[in-house]
Amino acid sequence: MKPPQTKTMTCKQLGGACDLEFHAETYDDIAELSKKHGFEMFQKGDEPHLAAMAKMQEIMRNPDDMKQWFEAKRREFNALPYDSI
Length: 85
What we know:
Number of helices: 3
Radius of gyration: 14 Å
Largest sheet: 2 strands, antiparallel
Number of strands: 2
Order of helices and strands: EEHHH
Shape: globular
């Protein structure tokens, strides 16, 4: 069986505030990892992440802006090379 083909994006690449790396096979999976991390940082009251979340809330106010942002991040993920094993 072939090992999973993963790609890597950082919290910052996904609109966050740090260099934590997420590894996943699909954009949806990497977005979910980022969301969980964001929730953990929210619970901790991490100021840089809270500021990044405020920026994301601005984007989310307009459905078209939100859709464009997500599509751009999906294209960015799809264009990344697979992680080397």
